[in-house]
Design a protein that fits this description.
This protein has helices at residues 26-41, 47-52, 124-127, 129-139, and strands spanning 6-11, 59-66, 75-85, 89-98, 104-113. The protein is α+β, with helices and mostly antiparallel strands. 21% of the residues are buried.
Length: 143
């Protein structure tokens, strides 16, 4: 199974780097969020629309592995895909790659749970079956 991978590019801003012009490590987690947000937007949906429907997707765990540093003014590509999905949980996987040389810089995963606005777990397959079906479809490679 080859899940659908959504790509989003950005350029490293000076404010995201430390004194050595290397991206400060916590910024990669922010970029994961950018990847997730753009992935969801690819479905003609937004986090705001999900929240208006009463669906929250809070983060429960995050894993990150640093391979190589990104530096000021590098163009990077955030590659995001659904690596696991159940009616209650969702896991996104990420790769951050430097565009100029395709160097893999960072890999990671974020784990989430579907909840209502009171943060009580819900079964997305019941409350928003179309959204769940789309996410599952992405996980299965669009097949």
């Amino acid at each position: 199974m080859n899940p659908v991978v959504h790509s989003h590019r950005l350029r490293v801003r000076y404010s995201e780097t430390d004194q050595m012009s290397v991206v400060y490590h916590t910024n990669y987690l922010n970029w994961f969020e950018v990847g997730r947000t753009e992935f969801i937007r690819h479905a003609d949906l937004s986090y705001r629309e999900l929240e208006e429907k009463g669906v929250m997707i809070p983060l429960t765990d995050a894993n990150i592995s640093y391979k190589r540093p990104a530096k000021y003014d590098d163009e990077v590509e955030i590659r995001t895909h659904v690596s696991e999905i159940t009616p209650i949980r969702l896991t996104f996987a990420y790769e951050i790659v430097r565009v100029a040389d395709e160097e893999l810089l960072v890999t990671g995963k974020t784990m989430h749970v579907f909840t209502n606005t009171a943060l009580k777990p819900i079964r997305l397959s019941r409350t928003e079956p179309e959204v769940y079906a789309w996410l599952e479809h992405q996980h299965k490679g669009g097949k």
